[in-house]
Design goal:
single chain, NADH Oxidase, 5 strands
Length: about 180
């Protein structure tokens, strides 16, 4: 399969099974994802694996950040349990007069997207979750982020549950590409 075919085939899998790549199986994908364009070669990112009880702690941080209680809190606390592996995507800003913060965030986003493509192509189900809790103090603390770090979201990774026939997504690229 070519890279173009793999990218066109990729779909977010909002439901995945409990199987997931091990830490050692994940590392080659991260190594490949780390080849994204990175002005200044700053590597302004890191990934955090959340497995087992770490997912429950994340659910508790969601609840703390939201202020919800009762059934709504319980439902929110279960969200990180939708996959047995969550990969937190963190931008770790590096001091640089040449490479602005937005560009460093773009590198971290590029690593995450490339990693999701690689995992999808290898047969894993992947979806990227974000939302308001990514920048909350409770979630920041739970991930033990430093003062120059921000969370961009999580890749939820697991086995593909059902292989539905793919509907070809139509996209009119000419609407988004202009010429000067």
């Amino acid at each position: 399969m070519t890279a173009l075919e793999a990218v066109l085939r990729r779909r977010s899998r909002s439901s995945v099974s409990e199987i997931a790549p091990t830490h050692d199986e994940l590392l080659p994908f991260v190594e490949a994802a780390a080849t994204v364009a990175d002005h200044g070669d700053l590597k302004p990112w890191r990934l955090i694996e959340l497995r087992g009880s770490a997912r429950s702690r994340l659910g508790a941080a969601f609840v703390e950040a939201s202020g919800l209680d009762g059934k709504d809190a319980a439902k929110l606390a279960e969200k990180p349990l939708r996959a047995s592996l969550l990969i937190a995507v963190v931008v770790s800003y590096k001091p640089s007069f040449k490479v602005h913060r937005w560009e460093q965030e773009a590198v971290a986003s590029g690593v995450a997207h490339t990693l999701s493509l690689l995992l999808d192509e290898a047969g894993w189900g992947v979806f990227w979750r974000s939302g308001g809790h990514t920048r909350s103090e409770a979630v920041h603390r739970m991930h033990e982020l430093g003062p120059d770090e921000e969370l961009l979201g999580w890749l939820y990774v697991g086995g593909v549950v059902t292989e539905k026939p793919e509907k070809k997504r139509s996209f009119n690229a000419s609407r988004f590409v202009t010429t000067l």
